[in-house]
Target: DUF4345 domain-containing protein
Amino acid sequence: MLFPKTIDNSYRGNKLPLYFFYLLATVTIGRSLAHMFLADGGAQSIATIPLDSYSKEASDVVIHIFSEWGLTQLMFGILYGVVLWRYKTLIPLMYLFIFIEYSGRLFLTVYKPIVLEGTAPGGILNYVMIPVALIMLFLSLRTQTDKK
Model:
């Protein structure tokens, strides 16, 4: 169920979304730490934002925003870990949130584009994660009784 009446640790869906959620939690935490602790916040080294062409002040603002984004990602990664540890019935809801997040990223990329020097991995991930999140959501909602 997307909105379970009881929130507990009993996951009833297909196992693939459960295992993929472990990977997603790990990647989210790793990505967050890169944004928080890389000297450029990953803005130029990963996202290919041309910080060298900005003034120092503008570059510092972008780096700061990336580090704050990393903190937000860390909080989501920890939330994913808590869900995996104690509240697996929320995994379908987490996939709905992930779908909304990546759809929003793609929308904002089109609505407010920025100049990049290359193709950022996160940009590609936006296109991949939207259908993947939907598939994982669907599979996570399928219980053993649905398969009979």
Q: What stands out?
A: The radius of gyration is 18 Å. Helices lie at 15-37, 56-86, 91-111, 121-141.
